User: Fold this.
Amino acid sequence: MTQQEFPLSLITALRAATRVVVLTGAGVSAESGIPTFRDKQTGLWENFDAAELATRYAFDRDPAFVWGWYEWRRAAVQKAQPNPAHLAIATMETRVPQFTLITQNVDDLHERAGSRNILHLHGEISRPYCEGCRQSHVFPRATPKIALGGEERIEPPRCQSCGARIRPGVVWFGEALPDGAWASARESARQCDVFFCIGTSSLVQPAASLTDLAIDAGATTIQVNPDSTDIDDLVTFSLRGPAGTVLPQLVAETWNIPQ
Ligand code: APR
Assistant:
């Protein structure tokens, strides 16, 4: 593993920061084997049509197809393990006085890595809820058969309390973000000293606008991504590389933690 050289001004800003915000996207879970959405060939939206799967309209038109697809993804998340990027972010939280993790990911790998103060902007795949009474439902582990497929049709179950249909616990295109999480995310982005943007294409709004809020508020902004994005020239530092390599090195160097 090659050791990355970090600018001293980056390390200094991070050591001095009292409020740090980390925004993560699918790239942070890529090294855990969970596919991203927009990477060429491997991205989910390269192989599946987002409009057929991640909208209210799609679920109403073909609930069994959509529910089956989300069960396949839920099984993949259950099988996956946190990677060094998730662990480095959890370590950062223990070193910074005020730390907020904002994730667009619907998996629970940040939680399993030990992160505590987490805002899930796009919901949680492990928490399907009732369309009628909105009660969350906990389901048994998805079967291995589902983990192999992705196109298996499964009828969504019914709520045991009110009989309405259960839906995936994610935010679909065209839906509002959870009010509380979104308000807290905006406030923390406006007030932070350092803002990280890790493993996201920064293409999906309104989540991507958080980076603009942090820039406008004068925060030091740090992007971590192996590829270029539209915000390369807008952030203070753009660290090129996989999050699972870059972040453990950055955290170790900043807080003198032996690797
Ligand atoms: N480390 C860091 N970044 C990575 C890695 C890695 N190992 N591998 C890939 N990436 C980067 C890609 O270069 C890309 O810029 O992660 C980014 C993933 O981008 P997207 O697939 O667009 O994911 P994201 O930004 O999280 O998408 C936002 O879109 O479809 C919706 O709801 C879905 O929450 C998702 C939202």
Remarks:
- DSSP finds twelve helices and eight strands in the chain.
